[in-house]
Specification:
Length: 488
Amino acid sequence: MKTFVPSMLLFAFFALSVKQLNAQCTVSNIVIQNTRNVISTSGSCTVTFDISFNIESNNGNKYIFIHAWVLNQYPNYFKCVNGQTTTNGAVKAPTAADLGNYFLTLGIDNSSTTPTILSSYPKDPSVTMTSASEITKIVAPDGSITFILKGVTTTVPVSCSTPTVIVADLWSSQSASAQVAHCVNCGIKYSAGYLRATGFVNCASLMYGATLTNATAQPIQGFYRVYADVNMDGYFTPAIDTILSGPTDFNINGGVGTTTTITGSVPGANLNQNVFILLTQTSGEASGASRVVFLPSTSCSPLPVTFNTFSARRVNNSNVALRWETTTEINNRGFVIEKNTGDNKWESVVFINTQAPGGNSSSIMSYTYNDINRNNNITQYRIQQIDLDAKAKYSEIRSVRGDGQSGKTIVYPNPSNNGNVNILFEENDAARDVMLVDMSGRILQQWRNTNSNTIQIYNLQPGVYSLRIIKMDTKEQSIEKIVVAGSR
């Protein structure tokens, strides 16, 4: 069991309202977590934490800024109403006088492929910048970008134990010197110190449980969503972690020390995974504010099967060869091959018995199956592993080209009429670097050392693009042309 103290900044933003002044960006999933080094002084609280957020990838986000205030000092420079700005068109970047009593200003220079933390504020050098020890930029398969800033240190002008509402603005600029705000996400609230939480996940019963304790004099209402830590990194990443349930209401009727309990089940496919509970308050001045609770798994048993590789390859016009390997198998009964031929419905193809004696093996086990597939469109495959206790988990999804579609790389639709394009690589397990380049040679998006055989690209402007592909093992290079037609 892990106890969570009511220190500042144990919180998260989620599902932001977004106003696109010039359709330059979409921002979501701002998450602040991993709070540490909490130092309480008279009337202030100094903390170090990590922050991450997702943003659309395009040339309009050369510079990105985050400002934060306590609620009663929020200047509302962008004239926000319910998280959206009432200003039409681009607006001037705020100065120190506009920002008022801010306690945090983070800046990112995203004008090149490698982002950096800004040490000075372009609009007004008198603005004090908040430092961070590390920045990471991750390009997702859908073309969006996740920024992770670690080691952010700031001092909040309230006591660490005082329940506080923080308000933040996030904006980006496409101008060369960040003098204008082209995309604004503002009036974003989060709560700190309102709730204490303890809990854990019991892998034997596949149940999670958490106790929420009110730290204020007023009742607290709200709702919560539950996520599984699918990559087991202990770090809440909404774009990666799987939602298990919610939204579900909670209600703490009394004041200080009053509690309520949250419980639920965990699917067998998420055995041994940690759980995140995203709490959003709907009462009082903290209405609309969110925070994350981490529930560690007791990890009482190993996962039943560890997949080593899984590939799906069309070998002729009517057959798809499926191959997979396992490095360990515990209590395994076998595998169900499932496929989706384009209608978003998965159907079972065949059940394959385990080769492991008694369902247990610590050696590499290899499996193959030949599926007759005359589908003219893209087909997706996945493997459902089922153990002797009827618990199950899924492999990653692999895609294959349609019957009659030629080429090792399929781009579809091409031309695209809406700026959205899918990329399919026939070689499932090959690691590759992929770059999306416009006609002037600028790299718009890139995927480093990816072995996924599908990539989605969104919101391309009309024009012609090149997709440069470099196989990591052989350094073989190829280029695919992408055409986006019409106006969007």
